[in-house]
Amino acid sequence: MIKLVKAPVNPDVLRWARESANLTIDEVTIKIKKSPEVIEAWEKGLDCPSYAQLEKLAYSVYKRPIAVFFFPHPPKEDDTQKSFRTIPESEFNRLPFTIIRQIRIARVKQENLYELCNGSNPSENQILNGLKGSSGFNLKEMVSAIRKYLGISLEKQKSWRNVETALETWRYAFENSGIFVFKEAFRNDDFSGFCLYDKEFPLIIINNSMAKTRQIFTLFHELGHLLFETSGVDKLNDDYIDILPEYDKKIEILCNRLAAEILVPSDDFELYVKGVQVDESFVTNLANIYKVSREVILRKFLDRGTVNESTYKELTAKWNEEAKKQKRERKGGGYYYNTQIAYMGGKYLEIAFNAYYKKSISEIQLANYLNVKTDNLPLLELLLHRRWSR
Q1: Cβ 32 vs Cβ 57: under 8 Å
Q2: Which CATH architecture group holds 1-74?
Q3: Is 204 helix (H, G, I), strand (E, B) or coil?
Q4: DSSP assignment of 186-202, as one string?
Q5: Could you say which DSSP state residue 341 is in?
Q6: How far apart are CA 115 and CA 126, in angstroms?
């Protein structure tokens, strides 16, 4: 007879997960086909579910990452909305469940980092500490300070071969500067990403379903939020900005301007566009030079009055449709473990494996941190080493 391996979960977290999902014990019993007495015993710490039962509870019933059930205490979610202060309450309450779930998953990653790093960010040069107070700078001063801190000049940016290289290099620079960048497939094209502000472990989550040029813009939009010590969401439709209180409205507008100015500095942009007839081909060429989207370039022309609002809306609508068509025509998904490496990022994976080899965490804990089965850890590590050795 096969003996089931028990999962040593925190009963308080188990009860919290059920209550936060607005489920009664009787409702849970129906979903997993266990008696109320069994569920009660789990929540009182008298017994534990098996790993198979925990997986079903986590992913199918409570819609939570499995790692959260091993936390020493339930995550604090009551102040999540408060941290997104530049989103009106009405707009926050309309966020789809898929985005709320991504925010929850990100909170878990933040908790993981606190545990793996003993509460201290391992990056020697943390950009948010180094640029503390930079929100009082003018835009050009902020751009200059950020580029200097990340160690990437405009000349280097222009020299990159393609957008893929640009995204990877920007992400590496962010992670070396104390900001952890994760990717997820939001399955919702209305949201490009979000950030969670934290003094020790600030996170940026980008929607991997979006074009890479949009992902790059989102990185810098969310960096703006983090510099203002606030969490934020990057939505394609940002009409809600007009109903924000004046200070929060100023932050949201500045985040957009900051991202655009870092990626396409106005002084340099002017060298290309003086006396030039603007057409779609010229916009595309400039986008390729800066490794940004055509929308970013066209917005620069709109801001300087070279194109009008109707032209801007017409072309951006056309490009969005082209992007959707290309997305529909793409076939198949990526290899799961390569996808996990891309989603979690090298920095997070390095920290987790280092903790394991230092015997700070067990093999089971490592698997939970990395969202894989223990049997597949060697494969994940092999793929990771291949990437690092390129």
Answers
A1: yes
A2: Orthogonal Bundle (1.10)
A3: strand
A4: -S-TTEEEEEE--SS--
A5: H
A6: 19
- Residue from 220, 119, 104, 176 nearest 346 by CA: 176
- SS3 for 42? helix
Closest-CA residue to 75 (of 129, 38, 112)? 112
Give the residue extent of every domain in the chain.
Answer: 1-74, 79-262, 264-330, 336-388
Residue 235: helix, strand or coil by DSSP?
Answer: strand
Report, as an integer, the average pLDDT of 8-31. 88
Q: Which residues of 65-99 are buried (b: 16+ CB within 10 A; e: fewer)?
A: bbbbbbbeebbeeeebeebbbbbbeebbeebeeeb
Question: How many Cβ atoms sit within 10 Å of the Cβ of residue 318?
Answer: 12
The whole-model pTM stands at 0.81
Instruction: Name the least confident of 200-214, 292-306, 329-343.
Output: 329-343
Angle between helices 346-357 and 97-116 (to 10 degrees): 40
**Residue 238 CA: distances (Å) to CA of 95, 233, 382:** 13, 10, 42
Could you tell me the pLDDT band of residue 242, with boundaries at 50, 70 and 90? low
What is the structure's pLDDT at 1?
44
Q: Which residues pair with 50 in a beta bridge?
A: 6
Q: Which of 338, 340, 350 is CA-nearest to residue 372? A: 340
- Place 222 in a pLDDT band, splitting at 50, 70 and 90: very high
What is the DSSP code string of 106-171?
A: HHHHHHHHHHHTTTS---SS-HHHHTTTGGGS-HHHHHHHHHHHHT--HHHHHH-SSHHHHHHHHH
**The pLDDT of residue 227:** 92
